[in-house]
Amino acid sequence: MIVQLFWLYYAIPMLFGINLGSNWWIGVIAIGLNYGAYLSEVVRGSILSVAKGQTEAATALNMSSFQRMRLVIFPQAVRMMLPEFGNYTIQMLKGTSLVSLIGLTDVLYYGDIMRSTNLDQAPLIYLLVLVMYFILALPLIWLTRKGESISKKGVASG
Amino acid sequence: MNYWSWETFSEALPMVLQGLGITVGLTFSCYAFALLFGFVWTFLRRIPNKLIHWIVTWTMEFIRSTPPLVQLFFIFYAWPMIPGIGVTLSPFTSAILGLGLHFSTYIGEIYRSGIESVDKGQWEASRALNFSVFDKWKKIILPQALPPTIPMLGNYFIIMFKEVPLASTIGVAGILHMANTYGARNWAYLEPLTIVGIIFLLLSYPSAILIKKLEVKMNTRFDKKAALENVKKGAVM
Amino acid sequence: MSDTIKEPIVQFIDVHKSFGDVKVLKGIDLDIKPGEKVAVIGPSGSGKTTIIRMLMTLEEPTSGDILVEGNNLWKMSKKGKQVRANEKHLRNIRGDIGMVFQHFNLFPHMSILDNCMTAPVNVKKEDKNEVRERSIQMLERVGLGDKLNNYPSQLSGGQKQRVAMARALVMRPKIMLFDEVTSALDPELVGEVLEVIRDIAKNDDMAMVLVTHEMDFALDIADKVLFLDEGVIAEQGTASDVIEHSENERLQTFLRRFRSV
């Protein structure tokens, strides 16, 4: 992802001659595209992992393919997606730290600036940055665990 | 302004390739470290003490949910400043420690899932046959727990390979670092960075296919029937 | 008299089915009359399940025709030519057929009542309150009136299978298919499920096709028994015809094996 971020950072203004105003959008595009790809895999995998018998039962009840997806498959697949979505959101949170490298002023960016003026305070500063990320991640960790227990209940698989 | 120049491309190519050895070497080193340290996590978590278990679990959670980039900075910039235990580490060593440690928490989880997937009867059988703790792990549990985790472990190899360029931020001269150096020197980033992208694509795509194949093979080998046979075998042994 | 001249509701005409290189069915000809109870017996792998799965449109025949009330199930005419049936055509015919599966296939994210209500409400667009009434009645009939708001995971296998039957019955099919509905159950739960089937067979006028290994039960309730062997119907007739008067060696061996157990 860091390669893609750099590539977009240098290539977009060069290739399209557009200045996006800030690097904000470059970060959004790079991170969004990356995790969009991962999440689409999660969605696909969850839908495929709903047991075949569910589709057959829905067919036997004469549901249309849209009804099968809406009433039977998707509600079950969503439960399976929850923990993965939580996990990837944490990954994404971690991934945002890369934008400090293209000059966006995030937590890490300020941490770096502080360190450059107080070299011997580096341990404290970076520890503080780490703790901040961790505090941001805590609700996501909680959600992921919650999602895991939801997804274990009430889903037919196999 | 000229957008793309093949001249720059061919000029940048050898320079970027110089970094390839370092990138690949670092990937293998980090991976080896993570594989090894993953065991440490797994076994620490099995210590039957609530406090230790709690500490280990949340340490893993902390390492896993904070950015590896910041962890790299911490080890490279902050570690030497800590009075008493601070040591200055080379960028390469810092990267092995930082990325290796970060991913060892994931690898540890994989080991754990493998161990938990071993049938309860196997533990009971090895107790009934009076195996020593060491023999139980070496001869019964690990031979069954590890092979099914191979595809997942393989996936992490590719993931780590893609994360290794982070090390360029602390000056490890891998391909991304070389590309940036070239870019800064000639004010031409597009071509060298494109080369880096292509190299990653060329290396990680075939490995991904290889791992997918491995996965299919493992799945057919370790299906339920096989697991049942193992139970039988375990009982007979 | 009226019984004998009734048009068959289902007809199989020289139906073949292969999975890859494996020929499972090698020419099935079969008539089922409205209200007729048909039991399909035979060794495992003989293609019993495949017959009803094709009728339920879960499996497409390799060749041959299946007619439901005179309509070709898997083929339709388009500009005077016979072409492969599309989903719309299948849905039109499928509405008359219901199925109960070996592994229940209840929807785990819905309560028992919702499992029964979802199809009539969403597929047949029937009135919700009326469907609710009917579903509750049906669940009471299968002895689960006190579990309406439970979820499938809270039920035993036998209870799940009874819900599955109620779910199929609420759709008011003209043909009900039972695919080894007791095979996945613990032995002590088989009885309660068979009781419900017996009740349906006695009191409802729909046609039923039972694929089963419960030999005595099948022979007891069936108007017609089919013995399927190596992809063909090796023997068919009334229960007493098939058991007592058949000279088919393999059938006799098959029956002996089951009855001695």
From TrEMBL, chain B:
Name of the protein this chain belongs to: Ectoine/hydroxyectoine ABC transporter permease subunit EhuD
Subcellular location: Cell membrane
Gene Ontology cellular component terms for the protein in this record: ATP-binding cassette (ABC) transporter complex
GO biological process: amino acid transport
Entry keyword annotation includes Membrane: yes
One Pfam family matching this protein: BPD_transp_1
Organism: Oceanobacillus bengalensis
CDD domains: TM_PBP2 (cd06261)
Domain annotation ABC transmembrane type-1: ranges: 20-211
